[in-house]
């Protein structure tokens, strides 16, 4: 038996500073004509993904890419081909997108699309775009419950663009089960009116019972799952190496944390991955966003993205800024 032939594709997510991104409609005569996609196309012999991205975006819409970072890799089998799609976040380009192939363009808001249908392979991509560049993990352990809740209230009260918190992972492994449940109940009540999603840590059943927005699992807990759990909207997994990233992939995670990248007070004496180690692991290409964790500040977001990450996950830094 011969191995199935894989078509390698590079596609670009043009991102504007306001968070909107560009979709194009597939021109008549191509498979899935009229479906909406991220502009891009097939790699030619000898090209890297980034080479192909730049060439395709120039051919299809006349722009010159000036800043792009590798993001997700999605493999999908269509009736006509198995495609391996390398997605890039494109944050800089010269020129205005022009429809060189008769396509239409539409700028879209994550989570609120107004065009359809979308190419079937692109569902997870659109979910990934809704994830924030900074994912905050709670720090009641470090600050004390009351002081942390006071910080939480402050961050919930701000507008999204100005430090307002809209995603939270409630991770407090030092708490006994009853205390964690009580805290989770209170945190969900505080967060819901602000539209802040809350993912509980470690306990799928509790997340389902309390109607949390998702669950975040250590890789060893995720490894015991046979498939993605039902009844949960968002699933994250903490990982440290390629084997744990593979677990996250197998259970259909929406994102992974990967670290620790820098030395951090929470893991004294354990060797850090460093950015080279982080990039070596993201480079394999995962179908979900990967966050860098471990000693990460806001200054590290761009570095994480340049190394194949989606952004950074923060514990103490998320609660320290004024
Ligand atoms: N460009 C692009 N292709 C995608 C996306 N999602 C997805 O499944 N694909 C698949 O990737 C494959 C290659 O895309 P393409 O048709 O744009 O290739 P191309 O620009 O080189 O076109 P050509 O073959 O006419 O030269 C197609 O099978 C398409 O269905 C996406 O978001 N963007
Ligand atoms: Mg194309």
Automatic annotation (TrEMBL):
Keywords: DNA damage, DNA repair, DNA replication, Hydrolase, Magnesium, Metal-binding, Mutator protein
Swiss-Prot/TrEMBL cofactor(s): Mg(2+)
Reaction(s) catalysed (UniProt annotation): 8-oxo-GTP + H2O = 8-oxo-GMP + diphosphate + H(+); 8-oxo-dGTP + H2O = 8-oxo-dGMP + diphosphate + H(+)
Signal peptide (UniProt feature, chain positions): none
Residue ranges of the TM segments: none
Keyword Plastid found: no
Stored CDD domains: NUDIX_MutT_NudA_like (cd03425), TMP_TenI (cd00564)
Documented EC number(s): 3.6.1.55
Residue ranges annotated for the Nudix hydrolase domain, each copy included: 4-133
Key word DNA repair present: yes
Similarity comment text for this entry: Belongs to the Nudix hydrolase family.
Protein name: 8-oxo-dGTP diphosphatase
């Amino acid at each position: 038996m011969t191995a199935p032939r894989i078509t390698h594709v590079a596609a670009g997510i043009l991102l504007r500073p306001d968070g909107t991104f560009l979709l194009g409609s597939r021109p008549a005569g191509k498979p899935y004509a009229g479906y909406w996609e991220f502009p891009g196309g097939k790699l030619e012999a000898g090209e890297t993904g980034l080479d192909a991205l730049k060439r395709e975006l120039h051919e299809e819409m006349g722009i010159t890419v000036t800043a792009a970072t590798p993001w997700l890799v999605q493999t999908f089998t269509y009736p006509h081909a198995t495609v391996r799609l390398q997605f890039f976040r494109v944050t800089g380009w010269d020129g205005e997108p022009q429809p060189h192939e008769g396509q239409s363009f539409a700028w879209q808001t994550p989570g609120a699309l107004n065009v359809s249908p979308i190419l079937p392979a692109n569902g997870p991509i659109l979910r990934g775009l809704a994830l924030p560049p900074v994912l905050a993990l709670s720090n009641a352990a470090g600050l004390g419950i009351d002081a942390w809740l006071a910080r939480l209230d402050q961050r919930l009260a701000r507008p999204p663009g100005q430090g307002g918190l809209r995603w939270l992972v409630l991770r407090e492994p030092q708490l006994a089960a009853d205390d964690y449940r009580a805290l989770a109940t209170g945190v969900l009540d505080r967060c819901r009116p602000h539209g802040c999603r809350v993912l509980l840590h470690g306990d799928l059943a509790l997340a389902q019972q309390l109607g949390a927005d998702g669950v975040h699992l250590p890789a060893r807990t995720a490894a015991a799952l046979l498939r993605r759990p039902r009844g949960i909207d968002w699933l994250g997994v903490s990982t440290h190496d390629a084997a744990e990233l593979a677990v996250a992939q197998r259970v259909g995670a929406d994102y992974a944390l990967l670290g620790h990248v820098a030395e951090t007070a929470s893991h004294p004496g354990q060797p850090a991955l460093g950015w080279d180690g982080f990039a070596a692991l993201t480079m394999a290409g995962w179908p979900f966003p990967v966050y860098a964790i471990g000693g990460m500040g806001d200054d590290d977001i761009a570095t994480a993205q340049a190394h194949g990450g989606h952004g950074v996950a923060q514990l103490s830094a998320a609660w320290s800024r004024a």
